[in-house]
Amino acid sequence: MASEVQADNAIRFYESRSYNYDDTWHVDFTQRFISYLPIQPGQHVLDLACGTGLLTFLESEAVGSSGKIIGVDVTPGMLNMAAHKKRQAGDKYENVSFLQGDISHLDRIEGLKGKTFDVITVASALVLFPDPKKVIEHWSGYLKPGGILAVDATHPRNLVAGMVFERTARRLNLPVPYNREWSQSESTLKNVVEDAGLEVEKVITCENQAGYGKRFHDVDTWDDHFVENVIVKDVTRTFATNEIRKQAQSIFKEEWERLSVDGKVEEVDAVFLAIARKSADGSRYISKLTMDDVVFTGGCRCSGVQYKCTAQPADITCCYCKACQQVSGSAFLPFVDVPKDSVEFTSKMTLKKLTLSSVATRFFCTGCGAPLSMEYHSIPETTSLVMSSVNLETFKGTIPKVKRHIFVEEKAPWTLLPDDGAPRLQRLDVSDEQCGLSANNISDATG
Questions:
Q1: Largest CB tally within 10 Å, which of 40, 80, 222, 425?
Q2: 297 neighbors 310 (Cβ within 8 angstroms)
Q3: How far apart are CA 321 and CA 319, in angstroms?
Q4: Is residue 262 scored above 50 in pLDDT?
């Protein structure tokens, strides 16, 4: 059912764009897309979400008359334009055929039954699907052993108003025509493709996808973007009623402002392109570091910073020092210690260092202001993660418990310490091996 809804949304989203699609940046991008592919004469290529055939026809020229190309798309208008261009070219593209169908259900397309391909391409379409791993697994079934899959996903700040549109819809529990939130970095795309069973040979960041590079929007222009994306461009009628639009307006403004730094919202014109290969024997590729190795993931509120950790954390230290109060806006910060090399940031576009003393360096998100971690200079092999940044839904094993409260002499007068039996340290215990701090720097140990 979800797939049918997604397909219907895709048709509504793209049908009206069919007739001017070739007048957009997609022409230049498909030329850059194919330049990264090792397509050889005589190969058979499947171009999924082929649209008006921009990439399909380039692939036809690459494989030559001895090769075969099949383009598949769900939108009738797009395929009509592709078929028209093929007719206009006479015999030039005799090796090309087009099929209509939902690319998340290739098994339902009669013209693909029993076929496998040397190369499968999916340009500007992966983020249309709610479960990218699932569709890549499905597509890989149509790859020959040793075959290549090329697929791209958006930079998290690409078409930033669209990202805010998506977040707004999700907060209102409404269906969205695209699903970009998961795509945070080259690493996240690599992980998704490898979790689907293909070995990623490389991931490339393609800058200037639409030609504007990087730009900044004034934070108070949110209403212009709301009108353009929610009122004018909402072709799938996500926000169908005036009441829903009224709710969406305040949420859109809030999410837009969360992305701002110094009154500006950054937009980055880039996508990540992965080139992956099916194993020579057709078996499923097993990544050296799969999600099975990840104990938990985490990040900030706006998703500008995301991480994964492969180690079980130590129990929680609650710090009541003045610095922790000020950077959190609360009574304390809860930290868990993990080996530094067990943490990998899968997205850190808004990650910022903050140095308040010579003892430690803090890290926070400039997008939403969330504190994320702290590293003591005296124990460089350890990272202290803010426990509230941990995504507990992903946590494997035993959730950490509070093991101690520190710097209670600096706690706010309105704070009541919990009666949890955990030790309460006025400052830091000099003999505590975890902190590794000497008597000379105890007075500066607030980080």
A1: 222
A2: no
A3: 6
A4: yes
Q: Tell whether 153 and 223 lie within a shared domain.
A: yes
Residues 271 and 318 in one domain: no
- Confidence category of residue 320, pLDDT binned at 50, 70, 90: very high
Question: Which one of 257, 275, 291 terminates a domain?
Answer: 291
Domain count for the chain, please give it.
Answer: 2
Cα 328 to the center of its chain, rounded Å: 26
pLDDT of residue 235: 64
**Measuring CA to CA, which residue among 400, 261, 263, 414 is closest to residue 337?**
400
Residue 25, Ramachandran bin (φ over 0: left; ψ between -120 and 50: alpha; else beta): alpha
Positive/negative CA dihedral, 366, 367, 369, 371: negative
Residues 203 and 335 in one domain: no
17 Cβ partners below 8 Å, 6+ apart?
none
Neighbours of 41 (CB within 10 A): 10
Q: Is the pLDDT of residue 4 over 60?
A: no
Q: Going along 327-406, which residue ranges are E strands?
A: 333-339, 343-348, 351-354, 360-365, 371-376, 382-386, 390-391, 402-406
CATH number, domain of 250, equals: 3.40.50.150
Tell me which residue of 34, 178, 7 sits closest to 100, measured CA to CA.
7
What is the DSSP-derived secondary structure letter of residue 357? S
Count of Cβ atoms closer than 10 Å to residue 330 Cβ: 14
pLDDT at residue 178, as a whole number: 80
For residue 286, give the amino acid letter: I
Alpha carbons 268 and 283: distance in angstroms, whole number: 37
How far apart are alpha carbons 89 and 20 in whole angstroms? 19
CATH code (residue 415): 3.90.1590.10
Could you tell me the two tokens for 132? 């990218």
- Range(s) of the domain holding residue 111: 2-291
Whether 271 and 331 map to the same domain: the answer is no
Quickly list DSSP for 331-342.
S-EEEEEEEGGG
Shared domain for 426 and 359, answered yes or no, is: yes
349 pLDDT higher than 60: yes
Contact (CB, 8 A) for 72 and 103: yes
Asked whether the CA dihedral 82, 84, 90, 94 is positive or negative, the reply is positive
